[in-house]
Amino acid sequence: MNYYIGMSEKQEIFTLMGGRVRMHRGFYNPTSDAVWLAAYAPTACKTVLDVGIGTGGVSLCMLAHNPDLSITGIDVSPEMLEFAKQNSELNNRDIELINADITTWRPDRTFDVVVTNPPYFRGTPAKHNAHHNADLGGWVKKCVARTKPNGYFCIITDATTLDIVVSSMVPTCGDINIFPLFGARDTAERVLIRGRVGSHSGVILHRGLAMNWEPVLRDGLTIAKSLGKVSKI
Q: Residue 137, by phi and psi: left (phi above 0), alpha (psi -120 to 50) or beta?
């Protein structure tokens, strides 16, 4: 559930996390997926790479949790990066933006945390020229490759792609935590997945939450703080 969906289309600004993040309304607006990913990703770190940053929703929500983060965002779409720039300025945040394709990008650096809300949908490409019908397994492997040893890779994806994501992480990551998100159906609609590069620990499957969980979406808490289990999530 997205709390800004009911707002008038005439409004040029909408908010996330109960007003803690402000966004320009455009032809591509972040959904609650961005809030959930930011609420699950580790923020007790220095450097973050946001792969497929889009208009900046995930990064700006992470900065709301920890304004001291140094975030780099990469996207193949110049249009999306321009929106991300405008949104970062709207929130008085500084995000490094790079126009590149994660599947071919060859930087000389890695990051403490890599996050992504990937192009898991299939079908007709959207107007904003972002990746569609991508090789999700290859995307995940490229993201993991940009993560420092002992660093974390964190992703939100459609529940039907869980097998692709986890199997792509297992050769390099351990301590894999899976956190399902439920909508109106009895089966999970989205899954949050987090793994640690170089770890040999196994997989943990959490109970999960409803996708409209207000402490995260309305109050802007992390999942850990909203559940009161900081040491377990």
A: alpha
